[in-house]
Amino acid sequence: MEEEHFQSSEKVRDFVIGMSDGLTVPFALAAGLSGAVDSTAIVITAGLAEIAAGSIAMGLGGYLAGRTEIEHYDSEERREYDEVVNKHEVEITETKEIFAEYGVSEELQERVAREMAKNPKKWVDFMMRFELGLERPDKNRAHQSAFIIGISYVIGGLIPLSAYFFTESSQEGLIYSSIITLFCLVIFGLVKSKLTGQPLFKGTMRVALVGAAAAAAAFTIAKLIA
Fold first, then answer.
1. 82 is in which domain, residue-wise?
2. Is 148 found in the same domain as 65?
3. Taking the CA of residue 166 as centre, how many other CA atoms within 13 Å lie in the half-sphere pointing to its CB?
4. Do 148 and 201 sit in the same domain of this protein?
5. Do 105 and 204 sit in the same domain of this protein?
6. Which of 187, 175, 180, 173 is nearest to 159 (CA)?
7. Contact, 176 vs 163, CB < 8 A?
8. Which residues 6+ apart lie within 8 Å of 18 measured at CB?
């Protein structure tokens, strides 16, 4: 029987980042404007502009973070390849120290380290993971991250803003927007907890409460500015 493990934690993380910001920031902007103007058209226009700008900014941030992760890994990998050649015995010692942490005997440490040294690529991969704690990032990571964060931000932003499309006044839109946003935070927390294997109630309430607190804080700031 094969063990089942969740394999898409990075994609879920990107989705969580984009969706959580999308649900809170446009909501706060629309809510702040609702106290200053009564026209839903103005709120919708400003909200759509913020969603467009926010999704681009968030996507760009995800892309740069992904590129930085890839470049950092490549840089450290080149350094490790240089060290296994020019600091061979030092790397052997470091490899033995890693095995020692897992309770491997000194005799076996020496044997395994020497065997690993016969395959530089596997040896470097081992040191990258267990010495530096780095996993090889997907080469498409930067583009995937930018896309997922950007799209999830748009989806999240349209949810609270949708209430203003079907109401006659901005104040009425704010009431429905608040209800929709809170409901979606609960659903979002439930899905996130299910995907990541967290306790459903605890994970759902954490996301809902944190999201609601963030939205309330952002609303307060937007209200003061407006």
1. 78-130
2. yes
3. 10
4. yes
5. no
6. 180
7. yes
8. 55, 58, 62, 148, 149, 150, 151, 152, 153, 155, 156
Q: Could you tell me if 145 and 41 lie in one domain?
A: yes
pLDDT tens digit sequence for 109-135: 888 888 888 888 888 888 888 888 888
Are residues 160 and 217 both part of a single domain? yes
Task: Note whether 92 and 199 are same-domain residues.
Answer: no
The helix/strand/coil state of 81 is helix
Count up the domains in the chain and report the number. 2
- In angstroms, the CA 180 to CA 177 distance is 5
Query: Residue range 20-29: average pLDDT?
Result: 82
CA distance 144 to 123: 29
Euclidean distance between CA atoms 217 and 131, whole angstroms: 41
Q: How many CA within 13 A on the CB side of residue 94?
A: 18
What's CA 207's distance to the chain center, in Å? 14
Tell me if 117 sits within 8 A of 80, measured CB to CB.
no
